[in-house]
C-alpha cells in the first residue's frame, strides 16, 4: 500500500483507538467502571459509523469522508481519561470532555502523521461536538463539527429510545430525580414552540426532561439525520412515554413540522 493510502486509511486509526481504549478497559478494577468504559467504546464506534453514513449521504470525496470518520471515531476520546480521573461522565462535576478530547489527541500524538489542516479540523470537531452551540466556527472545520454533532445525536436518540421502551427500573439519577407530574412546564413548552433547545436548569417535571430531549431535533444539520431518526422511530418512543396528554399532541405537531 502506498504511504498516501495508508495515511488516509481509517483502519489504521481504528487500531489506534482500540489500543488506547483497551488500556482503560483492562486496567479498570471494578466491573461498573469496566461497563462504563465499554459503553463509551461502543458509542464511539457507532458514532464513527453514523459520521460515515452522513458523509456518504453528502457525496463527500474520499479524503473528506476519511476526515469525517476520524472526527466521529475520536469525538469522545476524552471520556476515558475523564471517567478514570473523576469517576463520572458529568462535565459539570468534572470538566468539558470535548476540550479534554482535544488535549488527549494532542498529548498522544494520534494524528501527528496527518497534515496540519486535517489535525486542526478534527481538534475543532471534537471540541465543538458537545457544546450547546458550535463555538469554533471556522470555514474548514464547520462541516465536520456539524457531521459529528448529528452522528452523536443519532446514537443518543437510539439510547434514549431504548431506555423509554424498556420496562426495567428507572434511572433516577439520569432523570435528575424529576417527578412524573402529567404536564410540561410553560417555560419548557414555550422554548419548544420557539424551536429552541431547553436548558436542564429549566426542568421541573419528567415530561419537561423528555421535551428537552425531543428539542434536540431543532439542532440537527442534515436531511440524512432527520430521515434516519424518523425511520428508526426514536422520537415515537420518547413521545409514547410522555404523560402530558394534551401537550403531547402539540409536540407531535411541532416535530412533524421540523422533520
Ligand atoms: Fe458522543
Write a short abstract of this structure:
By secondary structure, this protein is mainly alpha-helical. Helix content is 66%, strand content 0%.
Describe the structure.
- With 259 residues, this protein is mainly alpha-helical.
- The chain folds into two domains: 3-156, Hypothetical protein af1432 (Orthogonal Bundle), CATH 1.10.3210.10; 169-258, no CATH class.
- Helices cover 66% and strands 0% of the residues.
- The termini are far apart.
- Fe (ii) ion (FE2) binds at residues 43, 47, 75-76, 152.
Write the layout of secondary structure elements.
Blueprint: H1 3-7, H2 10-27, H3 31-57, H4 62-74, H5 78-86, H6 97-108, H7 116-128, H8 139-165, H9 186-193, H10 206-214, H11 223-231, H12 234-241, H13 245-258
Helix pairs in contact: 2-3, 2-4, 3-4, 3-5, 3-8, 4-7, 4-8, 5-6, 6-7, 7-8, 8-12
The structure holds fe (ii) ion.
What's the Cα radius of gyration?
19 Å
* Total strand segments: 0
Beta-strand portion reads under 5%
Helix content: 55-70%
What characteristic shape results from the CA principal axes?
Answer: globular
Average residue-wise pLDDT: 94
Count of runs of 4 or more consecutive helical residues:
13
Q: What count of structural domains?
A: 2
Q: Span from first to last CA?
A: 43 Å
**Low-confidence sequence ranges:** none
CATH class of the largest domain: Mainly Alpha
Question: What is the CATH architecture assignment of the largest domain?
Answer: Orthogonal Bundle
Examine the coordinates and then state which fold CATH places here, giving the name of the CATH topology of the largest domain.
Hypothetical protein af1432
Provide the succession of SSEs.
Answer: HHHHHHHHHHHHH
Amino acid at each position: 500500500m502506498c504511504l498516501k493510502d495508508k495515511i488516509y486509511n481509517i483502519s489504521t486509526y481504528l487500531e489506534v483507538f482500540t489500543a488506547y481504549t483497551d488500556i482503560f478497559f483492562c486496567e479498570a478494577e471494578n466491573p461498573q467502571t469496566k461497563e462504563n468504559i465499554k459503553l463509551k467504546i461502543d458509542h464511539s464506534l457507532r458514532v464513527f459509523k453514523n459520521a460515515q453514513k452522513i458523509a456518504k449521504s453528502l457525496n463527500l470525496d474520499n479524503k473528506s469522508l476519511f476526515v469525517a470518520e476520524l472526527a466521529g471515531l475520536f469525538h469522545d476520546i476524552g471520556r476515558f481519561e475523564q471517567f478514570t480521573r473523576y469517576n463520572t461522565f458529568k462535565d459539570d462535576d468534572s470538566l468539558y470532555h470535548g476540550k479534554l478530547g482535544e488535549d488527549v489527541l494532542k498529548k498522544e500524538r494520534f494524528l501527528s502523521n496527518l497534515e496540519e489542516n486535517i489535525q486542526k479540523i478534527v481538534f475543532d470537531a471534537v471540541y465543538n461536538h458537545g457544546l450547546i452551540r458550535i463555538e469554533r466556527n471556522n470555514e474548514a472545520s464547520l462541516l465536520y463539527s456539524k457531521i459529528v454533532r448529528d452522528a452523536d445525536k443519532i446514537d443518543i436518540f437510539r439510547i434514549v429510545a431504548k431506555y423509554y421502551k424498556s420496562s426495567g427500573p428507572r434511572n433516577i439519577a439520569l432523570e435528575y430525580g424529576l417527578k412524573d407530574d402529567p404536564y410540561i412546564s410553560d417555560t419548557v413548552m414555550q422554548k419548544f414552540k420557539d424551536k429552541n433547545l431547553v436548558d436542564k436548569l429549566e426542568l421541573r417535571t419528567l415530561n419537561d426532561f423528555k421535551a428537552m430531549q425531543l428539542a434536540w431535533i431543532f439542532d440537527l444539520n442534515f436531511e440524512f439525520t432527520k430521515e434516519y431518526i424518523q425511520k428508526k422511530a426514536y422520537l415515537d418512543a420518547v413521545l409514547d412515554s410522555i404523560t402530558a396528554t394534551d401537550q403531547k399532541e402539540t409536540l407531535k405537531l411541532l416535530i412533524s413540522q421540523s422533520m
